[in-house]
Amino acid sequence: MTIYLFSASMLVFAVIGLFILPLLGMSIFFMTIINTIKVALEQEYHYSLTINFVKQA
Predict the structure, then answer these.
(1) Looking at the domain assignment, is residue 53 inside a domain?
(2) Distance CA 5, CA 42 (A)
(3) Is the pLDDT score of 34 beyond 80?
(4) Is 9 part of any domain?
(5) What is the distance in angstroms between the CA of the first residue and the CA of the last residue of the chain?
(6) Is the pTM of this model over 0.70?
């Protein structure tokens, strides 16, 4: 998510980032809530929009 936030903050100067930055903020907020609920229910969770550098076996 850090990469997306950095690129959106740079795009603020091109006016596009003004629309992307709030959407990213809301997605981070809701993904945190959803993943918290999944952990409480002992389900497997993952963060969306992330790059998987290492595959799990």
Answers:
(1) no
(2) 29
(3) yes
(4) yes
(5) 24
(6) no
